[in-house]
Amino acid sequence: MKKKKRNNSTKDLGDLSRKIINILRKNGGKTYNYKQIASILGVDDPGSRNQITKKLAQLAAKKEIEQVERGKFKIEGRKNYYQGKLDMTTKGYGYVMVEELEDDVFIPQNDLNTAFHGDEVEIYIYNNRRKKKSEGEVTRVINRKRTEFVGILDLQKDFGFVRIDDAKMYTDFFVQKNKIQDAKDGDKVVVEMEDWPDKADSPFGKITKVLGTPGEHQTEIHGILAQYGLPHDFPTEVEEFANQIDTSIQESEIKKRRDMRDVLTFTIDPKDAKDFDDALSFQKLDNGQFEVGIHIADVSHYLKPGTILDEEAYERATSVYLVDRVVPMLPEILSNNACSLRPNEEKYTFSAVFKMDKNAKVVDQWFGRTVTYSDARFAYEEAQHIIETRGGDIPAGVSIKEDAYKANDNVVEAILELNAMAKKMRSRRMREGAISFDKVEVKFQLDEQNEPIGVFFKTSEDANKLIEEFMLLANRKVAEFIGKQDPKKTFVYRCHDEPDDSKLASLQTIVSKFGHKLNLKDKNSIASSLNSLLVDVQGTKEQNMVDTLTIRTMSKAYYGTENIGHYGLAFDYYTHFTSPIRRYPDVMVHRLLQRYLDNNPTANQDEYEEKCHHSSDMEGLATSAERDSIKYMQVKFMQDHQDEDYVGVISGVTDWGIFVEIIENKCEGMIRLRDLKDDHYEFDEENYAVVGRKTKKVYQLGDEVYVNVKNADLLKRHLDFNLLGLKEEVENK
Fold first, then answer.
1. What is the dihedral of CA 392, 393, 394, 395, to 10 degrees?
2. What does the DSSP assignment read for 116-182?
3. Residue 286 phi/psi, 5° resolution?
4. How many Å apart are CA 269 and CA 466, to the nearest integer?
5. Which residue range or ranges hold the S1 motif domain (predicted)?
């Protein structure tokens, strides 16, 4: 960074307290008098020295520095130093979240000292009591969240600059000519940070990958993955290792397992699924009870600790589902073949088998390794048709086979019985305080070039809920089996804390604008009123917005070895056991469960806590990448519909613009206040509205308006709308 020129006058003594503290802090333990400080500050006039003397006395009186002997001062070595994570804003300043402190610490841009968004940093806090928030500066970057960034190359004759796509990045990167590779001016690239010299305005970097021309589909999708440090293919050595694994079913291995190949077993998955990691088995028992098996691909049989395959799976920690592709956690030989519970194939599985009564209550349970045979594969639509018609005639329009067909009577009976049991389990969960999130998913119809040609919405029906309930049952019972048996045993739990009171209060204020109420009296009333809200908004203009805002009030679920229960599901014990093909924590759960079934001692908690933390972080990155890919596709879709007018609902109001979500396709964009030419609009924070200064015209959260597209920016993944007016005004013209 460039250093400012000093003036030898009192004009240079602005914020003198901070400058004195900085000098003493950076030379911790060493004593200074006013002359030495004046010399370091580069001032020598009597007025400046007098100010320094006064300020030293004031700071000593406030106990911010220590007067060791007359006229000599020092500061305690590590006083007011903290560690935390930097959260940058798009305006160039940041906040550091420190565990020991109630409030975040404000960091001005000129005190970031090379730290970037997400970095773990050491900060020094200045005691400034005139301000509500503490203010500080970054003194050291402890750990960089990332060192690679995605941006656009501005190529000069002998060097280049990479402008970073991320709005939270406040600097570009300087790249020397010999580190530009074969990138061309205007290319989207990945740049790796190498150094940030003291006097340099920008960090120095090297280009590690050329992604392609900005705006092109492959470039942008690979750019999203690279932005979050996510891979899009496997290293050659990992693929080769996976391809050499013996995936055949061996008689010697079958003998070590419970053989369930003769029990009716089937899968229900999305029609375009390729990895089937869970199957259900069903049989009626002589006493009128049912035996239900939840069979999960035995990934840990093939994925051995210490191998390059396991290391790669751990680093990825999760599969990433973008709009046009899946970036799998495991190579195809495992994810789509050996571990996929495909129909008419024997597979190694890890199972939770329950004896259940007519009320869907578990009366007996068994956990262990099995071998299974899937008799049939169904898409959710086919299973839904069986539930709705109570018969097995699958018409051509629903069938995932080429033609209409008739499903086996035993499977039809199993699906109907399981559905009835799932409804009872779900009803019981809701009564016990679970929250029912049936959020509408936005999906795109893509042509062969991955261009979006349509938008549709995916909702959860009975067939989806059937599978969901039995997966929840397996996850809960596995966690209970370990947790209740011995709470000291190291295990991987899926944890979810209670919602934040202030977020609930904000949600209550917002939904009241739509005529809805929340009861925030106690834990049970919160859960039941949130459920009522989610039911009440179904099919309304505000549904997607309220669903999204309600999810945001919730604490973030995470993986941890300390069990706190799962608030959203109303479970005291919960884990992830059912998706080891796509989630590494499930692999860890399988390994730990087998370890304890074999009566081995508890695993190292610190080791598993670190793995849990990594898995939670990677889950967050994958979620962000998935969200960005949807936003990218929405912008791409709207580019082709710029001449159309849409009805939308005002989904957010800020001091610089109004956010509008189009009702028919859920695409969200912004109307900037400066673009509203009929009046000067001011933000009314209390009422989530903007109000015209002269006309007193109001645009408020929840209002329906007509909009069209002003600008669809693929690179920033941002939509700008023109406001055509309130819905009733436009339609009455």
1. -170
2. -TT-EEEEEEE--TTSSS-EEEEEEEEE-S-SEEEEEEEE-SSEEEEEES-TT----EEEEGGGSTT
3. -60, -25
4. 11
5. 643-724
Token duo for residue 650: 């005002």
Nearest-angstrom CA–CA distance, 536 and 448: 39
Asked if the model's pLDDT at residue 76 lies above 70, the reply is no
Residue holding tokens 């060493």?
A: 30
Burial of 721 (0-12, 13-18, 19+ CB in 10 A): buried
Residue among 564, 579, 590, 419 at smallest CA distance from 498: 564
Q: How far apart are CA 516 and CA 676, in angstroms?
A: 30
With contact defined as beta carbons under 8 Å apart, do 56 and 34 qualify?
yes
Integer Cα distance of 616 and 224 in angstroms: 19
pLDDT digits (tens, 9 = 90+) for 491-546: 999 999 988 888 888 888 888 878 888 888 777 788 888 888 888 888 777 777 78
Kindly indicate the confidence band of residue 7, based on its pLDDT and cuts at 50, 70 and 90: very low
CA distances to 71, 177, 214, 632 from 220, rounded to whole Å, are 62, 25, 7, 8
pLDDT in tens, 152-210: 999 998 999 999 988 899 999 999 999 998 999 999 999 999 999 988 999 999 999 99
Q: What does DSSP say about strands 393-394 and 362-373: parallel, antiparallel, or unpaired?
A: unpaired
Place of tokens 């960089």: 144
CA dist list (Å): 79 to 29, 66, 102, 108:
11, 12, 18, 20
Q: How confident is the model at residue 127 (pLDDT cuts 50, 70, 90)?
A: low
Please write the tens of the pLDDT for every residue from 310-353.
999 999 999 999 999 999 999 999 999 999 999 999 999 999 99
The rounded distance, in Å, linking the Cα atoms of 464 and 384 is 8
Q: Give 189-201 as a DSSP string.
A: EEEEEEE--TT-S
Which neighbouring-strand residues pair with 292?
282, 354
Output the six-digit token pair for 596. 């304890």
Find where tokens 């940070």 sit. Answer: 193
Element of type H or E holding 219 = helix 217-227
* pTM of the model as a whole: 0.85
Residue in the structure block whose two tokens are 């009422």: 687
What is the distance between the terminal CA atoms of the chain, rounded to a whole angstrom? 58
Tokens (6 digits) for 441: 């998913």
User: Using CA atoms, how far apart are residues 650 and 287, in angstroms rounded to an integer?
Assistant: 58
Higher pLDDT, 2 or 19: 19
Q: pLDDT per residue over 685-698, tens digit each?
A: 888 899 999 999 99
Q: Which residue in the block uniquely carries the two structure tokens 């996850």?
A: 475
> 342 vs 268, 297, 474, CA distance in Å?
11, 10, 21
Tell me which residue of 534, 603, 524 sits closest to 570, measured CA to CA: 524
Q: How far apart are CA 60 and CA 56, in angstroms?
A: 6
> Is 346 within 8 Å of 371 (Cβ atoms)?
yes
